[in-house]
Design goal:
Order of helices and strands: HHHEEEEHEHEHEHHHEHEHEHEHEH
Shape: globular
Bound molecules: ligand FNR
Number of helices: 14
Structural class: alpha/beta
Number of strands: 12
Radius of gyration: 19 Å
Strand order of the largest sheet: 4-11-10-9-8-7-6-5
Largest sheet: 8 strands, parallel
Oligomer: single chain
Strand content: 5-15%
Distance between the termini: 40 Å
């Protein structure tokens, strides 16, 4: 009853298989989003309101879509974003994503709440493989300091501080499905956990809701890793991030799992970059987006609008949960194939050629 892997022709196909075959608690935790799940749907739908304005008669025989992110050269402008509890979907957990990331020369962001121990994920990587750390900031800053400095010593090349989760969003699908703490295994735990409130609530009680802009210099003082704020949702905060001297932001609504009626990251990006350009600030910070990216064309649209790269979450979880490493490998290859073809079809041979003239965003805002 499982389709062959070769029958998955795009990232959405993995989701359809996962919905049918995954364990109920795992599917509920991975797929759930806040409240009525309006934002999570908008995340992908927003891409459908952007159209291309391709160039023709460009020699596109040779196409190269490699680029850099925080100084690291990658084969294609996406990274595996941080998603907690990898062992809910696959017995080996996050290291499956590590191996696929290596094969495709893309970066993996390691979640604070990984099922595998942090060192196990670092050890699973090859010597030259780049990984980033996603940080949930603990109320006990000594714990946070230890995590950050350990990650830096182990060779992590970027610190992504999650700023959109002072309290976990209400994910009712997840709450309805009772979570047994043992399923998550090695995750960092706070004081008490309560599995009856779903997987998300059970693991997140240590997160500090008092985290503020005033803490940013403290982070800059404890690490030399580039700092990126993950979960920024308005241009005013991007300007503030530049003032505070951080290296990047991820425009993101946490896959629709936090604030319901947060806008899609692609829309926030389209609002942000013209403001940065008008002030000559576009090179002062690297802007990433995540949420709803499922197609090569989605990646292209984000890059045309000024993103340095994009994060992808659920599709790799679904591919891992259904077909393991082979699934994630195929999902990444499908994105590369889609990227290559669509670069040709819009008349571009390199990432530097992607610009806003190649997209029509009139209906992005007016719908
Ligand atoms: C997440 N996300 C997330 N983000 C974060 O900063 N720390 C975390 O622990 C998690 N955990 C997590 C678990 C699961 C199951 C999902 C689906 C998401 C958010 C994630 O990094 C990213 O913002 C979104 O997943 C991007 O949207 P897509 O690609 O899943 O649509």
């Amino acid at each position: 009853e499982m389709p062959l892997l070769s029958q998955c022709f795009n990232l959405l196909d993995f989701e359809a298989v996962a919905r049918r075959v995954m364990k109920k608690t795992a599917w509920a935790y991975y797929s759930s989003a806040a409240d009525d799940e309006i934002t999570v749907r908008e995340n992908h739908a927003a891409f459908h309101r952007i159209w291309f304005r391709p160039r023709v008669l460009v020699n596109v025989e040779q196409v190269d879509f490699s680029t850099t992110m925080l100084g690291t050269k990658v084969d294609i402008p996406f990274y595996v974003t941080a998603t907690a509890l990898g062992k809910l979907g696959h017995a080996e957990g996050e290291v499956v994503l590590t191996r696929a990331a290596k094969k495709h020369n893309v970066i993996q962001m390691i979640p604070t709440l990984a099922s595998c121990a942090f060192d196990e994920i670092m050890d699973a990587a090859e010597a030259d493989q780049v990984q980033w750390l996603q940080l949930y900031v603990n109320k006990d800053r000594e714990i946070t300091k230890r995590i950050v400095q350990h990650a830096e010593r182990r060779g992590c090349k970027g610190l992504f501080i999650t700023v959109d989760a002072p309290q976990l969003g209400r994910r009712e699908k997840d709450m309805r499905s009772k979570f047994d703490e043992d399923e998550g295994s090695d995750v960092q735990r706070g004081s008490t956990t309560d599995g009856s409130q779903g997987a998300a609530r059970a693991i997140s009680t240590f997160i500090d809701p008092a985290l503020s802009w005033d803490d940013v210099p403290w982070f800059q003082g404890i690490t030399k890793m580039p700092i990126v704020l993950k979960g920024v949702q308005r241009v005013e905060d991007v300007l503030k991030a530049i003032e505070y001297g951080v290296q990047g932001v991820v425009l993101s609504n946490h896959g629709g799992r936090q604030l319901e009626f947060a806008r899609s990251a692609i829309e926030v990006l389209a609002e942000t970059m013209p403001v940065l350009r008008a002030r000559g600030l576009q090179d002062k910070i690297e802007v990433y987006i995540d949420g709803g990216i499922r197609r090569g064309t989605d990646i292209l649209k984000a890059l045309c609008l000024g993103a340095k790269g994009v994060g992808i979450g659920r599709p790799f979880l679904y591919a891992m949960s259904t077909y393991g490493l082979d699934g994630v490998d195929r999902a990444m290859q499908l994105l590369k194939d889609e990227m290559e073809m669509n670069m040709r079809l819009i008349g571009c041979t390199k990432i530097e050629e992607l610009d806003e003239s190649l997209v029509d965003v009139r209906s992005l805002f007016n719908h």
